[in-house]
Amino acid sequence: MIVAGLDGSESSWRAAAYAGGLARRQHALLALVYVQPYIAGGAALGVPVSEADTGVAEQLLAEIRDSVERTRGAFSVRWEFHTFRGDPYNGLAMAADQLTADAVVVGASERAGHRLVGSVAVRLVKSGRWPVTVVP
Q: Measured between alpha carbons, how far is 88 from 118 in angstroms, rounded to an integer?
């Protein structure tokens, strides 16, 4: 199984496309994973935390289905979509563990602050638990 992290950024879409090609060539299942972040102040303001970010997941799933329909017949990839909750690193790590990933594919961070703190991709690579491909 190939696990690809997807958050809607351009680099994550490129990572998903790369992972799709990898899954197709290896006849593997592609698991597209969106990690719903916790909204720390949301509960205090009365926002139902479990429902706060479901719109993003639904939008990503709709875009994935649209892409699959556009490419139908050209090539076929078995895929599934999962959502996990938490911070991006821990959510992807949990997804890769629970889904027994053979490989993880993520997009390179597009945020400047990650040079100081470290990006999700760098943290996944450093963990050494799965082969990780970082797509620019």
A: 12
Q: What backbone torsions phi and psi does residue 89 show, to the nearest 5 degrees?
A: -65, -55
- In the numeric block, the tokens 């139902």 are attached to 48
Structural domain boundaries enclosing 122: 2-135
Q: How far apart are the first and last CA of the chain?
A: 22
Rg of the chain on CA atoms, in Å: 15
Residues 130 and 101 sit within 8 Å (Cβ to Cβ): yes
pLDDT score for 7: 87
CATH of the domain at 115: 3.40.50.620
Cβ-count burial of 23 within 10 angstroms (0-12 exposed, 13-18 middle, 19+ buried)?
buried
Domain count, the chain: 1
- Prediction pTM value: 0.78
Residue 116 binned pLDDT confidence (cut-offs 50, 70, 90): very low
Regarding predicted confidence, which is higher, 56 or 83? 83
* Mean pLDDT for the stretch of residues 66-87: 78
